[in-house]
Amino acid sequence: MSFTKKPGGKALDILQNLPRITLANLRPEPGTKKAEKKRGRGQHGGNRSGRGHKGERQRGNRPRLGFEGGQTPFYLAIPKYGYNEGHSRRAQYQPLTLNRLQYLIDLGRIDPTQPIDLTQLVNGRGVTIQPQKRDYGVQLVGEGAGIFAAKVNIEVQMASEEAIAAIERNGGIVTTGFYDPRSLAVLCKPVPFFLSGQPIPKRMLPGEDMVPYYTDAANRGYLADPEKIQKARIALAQKYGYVLPDISKDELFHMLFMRKDPRQIFFGLSPGWVVNMTEKKILKPTDDKLLQYYNS
Amino acid sequence: MSYQEHARILFSLSLSLQKQTLCIPAGEAKSGILASTEEYKFVEQLISPSRVPFPPKHDGPSPFGWNPPSASASNTLLHLNSQDKVEGNIWASEKDVKEYLQQLTGKHLPTQVNEVTMTFRVKGHFDTALKEWLVKKGF
Question: How far apart are CA B99 and CA A275, in angstroms?
């Protein structure tokens, strides 16, 4: 309780005159430490020592956890069902809310004048992706769609319909693209990869189960037909009730339309190239077979 | 130009990048490697910044609702009904908070100051009210 009139107070004066603080001079605030009950000692801890009267309870011979006296226990009566079967092998997508994206742009951690992809999000410390833990990327989630007000060209791995609508309403572009685990690790941490001296791998195409997702224009998949995507943009605008801005008249339209090739991991860098960071050079193969492999 | 024409042009641009090879042959280079420094700027864009960037200037609150702090702010953080990490005169800021809350609620509220950890606590839930008050003061 504050009752001293002088600021800085008597505490400072007292401190200046006291000897050095050591463990021997300190004691906890009265009321913070409650003494524990010692079993087998005194009126309250002694006698039966909190074990009850006779039987299995006092003698410490109770049956195993879950035993119901002979009745088929709950954990055996309920039939098995594979709710969690293979849960550790399922793909996970780290959610990214529009709230968070707006926050990152407002604080200058992400540059909306450049295309935003997973590398930029990780560099701006916006999301944390663990490719080794079955993370397959980031998913755009619609929370914060009401306050979102940034024009961006963003590439994610999955996106909800509200999120797509919110971004397109502001004149931006969303694309969903697939990265296989090795490409994802390279995308999230490019610098250690370049330092390892390996050629940039080509990004693999999605597996059978994800091909329908990435070829669907409604999800703005990177393998979908651009004409269908344009129709889907108009349809979504009608569904959510906003006017679709014309991006081709925008000053940043060239940046907004930048998209990666399905086999490309980084903007501007092709698969097969080796990056030399110490000499700031890029080494490219010229062998026919290699070129054929990397360009296929 | 329509959206789909744009997309097709940029697809072909990215593909053609692979065929574009600026050759600066390095002395005794092994046959089969071309060195180039043209595309290194794309690598530089991928390098993560090591320092926290300065936020861009906003007029008033940003779309997220973040208010840029004024130049003369001392670091204070608000958590529930306790004021943490108060630099400078803790008794003065405690007095200000008490006066403000007295105007707000009309009651004399008990407070506890901890000079050792530089925090003080106020009894009651004044989360949003105190946050707005601090923003007005320029923190």
Answer: 62
